[in-house]
Write a structure and sequence with these properties.
The chain has 10 helices and no strands. The chain is mostly helical. It has 2 domains: about 60 residues; about 190 residues, Penicillin binding protein transpeptidase fold (Orthogonal Bundle), CATH 1.10.3810.10. The longest helix has about 50 residues.
Length: about 260
């Protein structure tokens, strides 16, 4: 009788235990599927810029700040113009101000030329950071603003990739057409030139190119339309350098 009662009790407890084990396995399986889905999504997001970038040889891209402003209902003004319709002094000045080794580096190496230009007698607080023009282009196209280790980790290999799949002329062309040049959604040098000087980018002179370059770090705080004394001093420095080192923009004049 005792053995029969114990057997009956185990039989009664068996199905609930099996159901609990089955429910636990189902939850674990669901978590594994969710984890696998998240990993796939992350991999797709990380791979997307590498897949998209080669198409920018023929497609004129928009920047992430432009997309954000569109999504939030803010003003965006941009007219994409080819490099041939931009005054040559503008990209030359940008190279001297932002990345003097642009024509020689592989997307991330600033090189000895840029260091040589940092003269001890420069009395203007320079705005250049550690990022090359290619890195800034990558940031504009695929990433976000602000200082972040994560962004730098993503930015560096993308900059190298962009240099591999796009010629230097195209990288510069995209940079000039995606950078922000005004305080109210003026993206691209054509919109910036029209806002600041009421003229096309092809008609900019050396001083105007230098003033526009001087506001590149933050066109919301600096203005080429109504330049402050620090902006004028920085523009004068950029103009002198561009005039003294025109050969540093040699890659913009070679064939694609």
């Amino acid at each position: 009788m005792v053995f029969a009662a114990r057997r009956d009790r185990l039989q009664d407890e068996g199905p609930p235990r099996r159901r609990k084990r089955g429910a636990s396995r189902a939850r674990e399986s669901g978590l594994r599927r969710l984890l696998a889905f998240c990993v796939i999504v992350i991999l797709v997001v990380l791979a997307a810029p590498y897949i998209i970038a080669p198409f920018y040889r023929v497609i004129d891209p928009v920047s992430t700040p432009m997309l954000w402003r569109w999504a939030t209902g803010q003003r965006v003004q941009r007219i994409f113009v080819p490099l041939s319709r931009i005054a040559p002094v503008l990209p030359q000045t940008v190279i001297l101000a932002e990345d003097a080794s642009f024509c020689r580096n592989h997307g991330i190496d600033l090189g000895a030329i840029r260091e040589a230009l940092q003269q001890s007698d420069d009395d203007v607080a320079e705005s250049r950071g550690a990022s090359t023009i290619t890195q800034q282009t990558v940031k504009n196209l695929f990433l976000w603003s602000g200082h972040s280790v994560v962004r730098k980790v993503l930015e560096i290999p993308l900059a190298i990739w962009l240099t591999l799949v796009l010629p230097k002329q195209r990288i510069m062309e995209i940079y000039l057409n995606t950078a922000e040049w005004g305080p109210n959604g003026e993206f691209g040098i054509e919109a910036g030139a029209r806002w600041a000087f009421a003229k096309s980018a092809r008609d900019l002179d050396a001083w105007q190119a230098a003033e526009l370059t001087a506001i590149l770090p933050n066109p919301h705080l600096r203005s080429a339309r109504d330049p402050s004394t620090p902006v004028r001093r920085l523009a004068a420095l950029h103009e002198r350098r561009a005039a003294a080192h025109p050969a540093l923009a040699f890659c913009l004049h070679s064939q694609k």
